[in-house]
Structures are given as structure tokens and as C-alpha cells.
From TrEMBL:
This is TSPO associated protein 1. Residues 522-612 form the RIMS-binding protein 1/2/3 Fn3 domain. Residues 34-127 form the RIMB1/RIM3A-C-like N-terminal domain. The lineage of its organism: Eukaryota, Metazoa, Chordata, Craniata, Vertebrata. Residues 427-443 have a biased composition (Low complexity).
Length: 613
């Protein structure tokens, strides 16, 4: 490409040094972006071709004119003066007319060229207004080069026309009428010039010149004509070179336009791809922002959950402390009850010894007197089925009925008086406590020796008073005697199932405190659906159940639930300190115990005891 540009620059002397092939391509590429500019350039090329054709015709006309002049000079013709004068006048008049027509045609062409130049200037102004740069200067140089070539062609045409006119005027003096008419016909319709007025005085002066002068001038004009023909050939050749260069550059520029169009299309495709990627990145960025906001929200919820967990842990710690304190109070109460039981056992032994002494004394008295009264026989018969027991005064039993005693008693015989129903509500009860309740004696008045009628009424033969020395009593025990019968379902009660039916004459044992409405709180309900299943891996056992409450602050049977206790064959193994827990994993150290045991049970824990089975 650089070699082609250098060749073009060397072949066109009017082009500046900085106007290389690539700059011309860029300049004309800018022109081809406008269809109107391309049309104007094509029109200028056509005009340039027409001018070249006119120059060629001028050369042919000049050659024919020279041949005609030689014929006129070599062939003298004798003519009369009057006819020659008329011929000269007619020839001059016709030549003036032809020259006027040709001058008007040339002026019209000049106007067209000026109009085209004006349009080129307007297009050039549009291009310079759109974008200023070095290629605009190159376009100016190219336009200037075209105008100079056109002016040069016009100047050559005018010089040739003037030369031919002078030669024809000189040859008209010595030529015949026929030769003058031939010369006029040859030159008239084809040779253009710009001279629009001819003076007949100049023609008359040319006729009066001599033949030597005409020959000298003819040779001189021939030489000038040859020089002009040579210059016309050079200009025509240069015009052809310029046309070929312009065509070559035009083809090159079209190729570059195609390449630039392809590059533009690829750039548009890349731009669309980048736009799509940008939209995708914006969506990803929006998603990341949403994720960050969600993460912040989760962190805030996590902090709130941690605070709630800390509060629950503090509450559980407080409950554990309260449970430990209640356990200590319970142990103190149990120790107090054990001391009271030991005192009662001592009193029972002393009463037994006293009773045996009285029996021996009664036997001695019977042996001495030999008489047996009805009272003593009754006493003897009533003494025989009695087991060794303590004699409890009636006043002490009444104190127990008022609720001041802390030991529970229960009947273990099979008589009718021991079959009375005993209804109770416990605050702290377990299976071991219920067993001790069944084995403990019932609170009843023990008659003294001299009150046989009361013994018959209470039916002492069916009462077994055997206290349990190792039993653990509740923290608060109250014993009541029902004076009237009461059925809650007979009255207008909203919740009759929460009230205890009473039978007149039976003892009611109450564990716990009474609330302000006169209700006693009992033990919670036991959990349901207890199952023992193998865990997710070997060596792990899962014990599951249905919790009695789904609320961390929930209650069952009027008492607050604190957790659950797991028993294996009646022995407590572990505790779960959660009211809503539904399962627990058995550790490896305790697994063997559960594998050997026959029964696994779960009981509900509360501040008032555990649920029964």
C-alpha cells in the first residue's frame, strides 16, 4: 500500500507531500459515506472525460486545418478581386457566427463547471462542519487539482482555436473561394474559442500582408501548434493517469469501506454482547444485595434468638435453684417426719409393754377371783386378733384431722371399714411415694383400754397400724374428714371434672397448699406413647414420647411442667429439663441398663411432684 501511495504521489505533481494513499483513502472514504457526494464526484469524472474528448477533437481539427492550409498554399488559384472580396466577407461572417455559437456553448459549459464547483464547495463545507481534520485539507487539494486541470484544458482549447482562426484568416488572402469554404467548413463546427467579436478592419489588414510574411507566420504557427499539441497530449495523458489513480483509489476505498462496515458490525455485536453481560452483572449484583440484606436480617434474628436463649437459660437456672431449694426443704421435712415416726414407734413399744403388763395383771386377777365379767371378756376377745401396734390417743387423732400432722396413714386390712374411698390431690408424688402411701396406716383414733364401746364402733380388729420407718412424706400433708356427701356433676358447675366428689365419713388426704378459691393442685399428667427405638448409629438408643404441653411455660393438671424423668424398671435414670421435649438419646454408659431392663417409663416432673404411671 505504501508503494502504491508513493507512485500516485509521484505521478501527480499538484498533490502535497503529506497527502499519501492512506490519507486519500480516508478522505474519499468520508466522501463515500454521503451518497450525494459520490454522485457529484461521478459527475465531475464525466465532465473531465468530456473535456478530454473535446481536446482530442481539437487535435484532430488542428491537424486537418494544417493539411488544408498546406493544400491552399501549394495550389494557387486565380480569382477575381471582386469575387475574392465577397468570399472573404462571407467567410468572415460565417466564421464570426460559428465562433459566436461555439463561444456561447463554451460559456454554458463554464457555467456548468462553476455550478459543479459551487456544489463541491458546499459539500466540502458540510464535511468540514461535520468533522475537521487533515483529510478535509486533502479534499481541498484534490478539488483544487481538478479545477486546475479543467482550466488548463480550457486554456489549451482557446489557444488552439485562436491559432486556427489566425491561420484561416491568413490563408483566406491567397486561397480560392472553394478552399476558403472548405477551411471554414472544417474549422467552423468543431473548433471552440472564447473570442466573441471580430473586426472587419483586422481582416482587411491581414489580406494586405505579403506572402513571405504569411509563410513565416504559418511556420511559426505550425511550431506553436505542434507545441500546443504536445502539451495537450501531456495534459490528456496526465488526465488519464489521474482518472486511473482516482479509479484505483475509489476501488481501494470501496474495499476499505466494506472492511470498515464489517468492523462496525462486529463492534455492534460486541457492544450488544457487552450490554447483555452488563445486564446479567446488574442482576447478579441485585441478587447479591438481596442476599446481603437477608444475611443481615438473619444475623439480627440470630442475635435476638441468642438473647432469648440467654433469658431461657437464666430462667432454667432459677428453676433449678428453686427445685434444689425445694428438695432441701423436702429432705428437711422427711428428716423431721422420720424423727416423729421414731418417737411414735417408741411410744408404741411403751404402750405394748404397758398393755402386756396389764394383760398379765388381768390374768392374775382372774385367777385370784375366778370370775370373768362381760367387759373383760370383750376386752380379751378383742385383744387376741390385734397385732403389736401403738395406742394413739383420740386427741392426737383429732389434731391430725385438723391438718397439723405431717404423717399419712392408710388402712391395709380387708374389713368393710377399710374399703372407704380415699381421694387425694398430690403436689409431689412418684411411684415410690404411691407405694409408701399404700403401705402406710390410716389415721384413726385408737381407743384406750377402758373405752371398749368406741373400739367396737371403729372396728379396730380390721385396722393394722404398722408405720413405715423409711418412707419419705410430702412437704405438707393435710387430713380432712368429710361430713357430707358431694357430687360435683349434680350441681350447676362449669367444670365438674376438676372437683373432687366426697362421701360423708371418709378421710381426705391433701398434699400441697390450697389456693384462694379453695382448690388443691394435683400431680401433672403422664406423657403418652412412650417408645424405645435404636438410634441413627450403633450404640445409641432413642426414647421418645408425646409431651403434655407444647409451650415452654405450659402446665398440666393445674401445675407448671418442669421436665420429664426416664425410669428403667422403676429406677430413675435421667431427667430432661424441657417441658416441650419429646425424645432423649441414651448414652453408651447407660445403654446396658436399658438393654437389661424389662420396662421403660417416662413421668412428667413439676414443682409438686411427678406424675403416676
Amino acid at each position: 500500500e505504501e508503494t502504491q501511495g508513493n507512485g500516485v504521489e509521484a505521478s501527480i505533481p499538484g498533490i502535497p507531500r503529506g497527502w499519501t494513499g492512506s490519507s486519500t483513502a480516508r478522505a474519499l472514504c468520508q466522501l463515500y459515506y454521503f451518497p450525494e457526494t459520490e454522485e457529484k464526484v461521478k459527475h465531475l469524472k464525466r465532465k473531465n472525460a468530456e473535456l478530454a474528448l473535446i481536446a482530442k477533437r481539437l487535435e484532430e481539427r488542428a491537424r486537418k486545418l494544417q493539411e488544408a492550409n498546406l493544400k491552399v498554399v501549394n495550389a494557387p488559384v486565380a480569382m477575381k478581386g471582386s469575387s475574392l472580396e465577397l468570399c472573404k466577407k462571407a467567410c468572415a461572417h460565417q466564421r464570426a457566427k460559428d465562433l459566436t455559437e461555439q463561444a456561447s456553448a463554451l460559456l454554458a459549459k463554464d457555467k456548468q463547471i462553476d455550478a459543479l464547483q459551487q456544489e463541491c464547495r458546499e459539500l466540502q463545507a458540510k464535511l468540514t462542519a461535520g468533522k475537521e481534520g487533515p483529510h478535509c485539507l486533502n479534499l481541498l487539494d484534490f478539488d483544487h487539482l481538478l479545477r486546475e486541470s479543467q482550466k488548463e484544458v480550457l486554456r489549451l482549447q482557446r489557444q488552439i482555436a485562436l491559432k486556427n482562426f489566425k491561420e484561416s484568416r491568413q490563408s483566406s488572402k491567397t486561397g480560392s473561394k472553394s478552399s476558403s469554404s472548405i477551411a471554414a467548413n472544417c474549422l467552423g463546427p468543431s473548433v471552440p474559442t472564447l473570442d466573441t467579436s471580430i473586426n472587419y478592419s483586422s481582416l482587411s489588414k491581414g489580406v494586405q500582408l505579403g506572402e513571405p510574411t504569411l509563410e513565416f507566420e504559418l511556420r511559426k504557427k505550425r511550431k506553436k501548434c505542434e507545441n500546443l499539441e504536445h502539451e495537450v497530449r501531456k495534459k490528456h495523458k496526465r488526465c488519464k493517469e489521474l482518472v486511473s489513480i482516482v479509479e484505483f483509489e475509489n476501488a481501494d476505498l470501496k474495499l476499505q469501506v466494506v472492511l470498515v462496515t464489517k468492523e462496525r458490525d462486529s463492534a455492534l455485536q460486541k457492544s450488544q454482547g457487552l450490554q447483555t453481560k452488563l445486564e446479567n452483572l446488574e442482576q447478579v449484583l441485585k441478587h447479591m444485595r438481596d442476599v446481603a440484606e437477608r444475611r443481615q436480617q438473619l444475623e439480627a434474628e440470630h442475635e435476638e434468638a441468642q438473647l432469648a436463649l440467654q433469658e431461657k437459660q437464666e430462667e432454667v437456672r432459677w428453676l433449678q435453684q428453686a427445685q434444689a431449694e425445694a428438695k432441701r426443704e423436702h429432705e428437711g421435712a422427711v428428716q423431721l417426719l422420720e424423727a416423729q415416726v421414731r418417737d411414735l414407734e417408741d411410744q408404741c413399744r411403751s404402750h405394748i409393754e404397758q398393755f402386756s403388763l396389764l394383760s398379765q395383771e388381768l390374768k392374775r386377777f382372774q385367777l385370784q377371783t375366778g370370775k370373768t365379767g362381760p367387759l373383760t371378756s370383750t376386752l380379751v376377745t378383742s385383744e387376741l386378733p390385734l397385732m403389736p401396734c401403738c395406742s394413739i390417743p383420740q386427741s392426737q387423732c383429732r389434731q391430725w384431722e385438723k391438718g397439723n400432722c405431717c404423717q399419712k396413714w392408710m388402712s391395709s386390712g380387708a374389713a368393710a371399714t377399710s374399703q372407704k374411698q380415699v381421694k387425694r390431690l398430690e403436689s409431689q408424688s412418684s411411684s415410690s411415694k404411691s407405694e409408701s402411701m399404700q403401705n402406710s396406716p390410716k389415721s384413726c383414733p385408737t381407743p384406750e383400754v377402758d373405752t371398749a364401746s368406741e373400739m367396737e364402733e371403729l372396728d379396730v380388729d380390721s385396722i393394722s397400724l404398722i408405720p413405715e420407718s423409711g418412707s419419705q412424706g410430702p412437704a405438707n400433708l393435710q387430713v380432712f374428714l368429710a361430713r357430707y356427701s358431694y357430687n360435683p356433676f349434680d350441681g350447676p358447675n362449669e367444670n365438674p371434672e376438676s372437683e373432687l366428689p366426697l362421701t360423708a365419713g371418709e378421710y381426705i388426704y391433701i398434699y400441697g397448699d390450697m389456693d384462694e378459691d379453695g382448690f388443691f393442685e394435683g400431680t401433672p399428667d403422664a406423657p403418652l406413647d412412650v417408645q424405645a427405638e435404636p438410634g441413627p448409629s450403633a450404640g445409641i438408643l432413642v426414647i421418645s414420647w408425646l409431651p403434655v404441653t407444647i409451650d415452654a411455660e405450659g402446665s398440666s393438671n393445674g401445675v407448671r411442667v418442669t421436665g420429664y424423668a426416664v425410669y428403667a424398671d422403676g429406677q430413675k435414670v435421667m431427667e430432661v429439663a424441657s417441658p416441650t421435649a419429646g425424645s432423649v438419646l441414651v448414652e453408651l454408659s447407660q445403654l446396658q441398663m436399658f438393654q437389661v431392663c424389662r420396662e421403660v417409663s417416662v413421668r412428667t416432673m413439676s414443682l409438686y411432684g411427678e406424675s403416676s404411671l
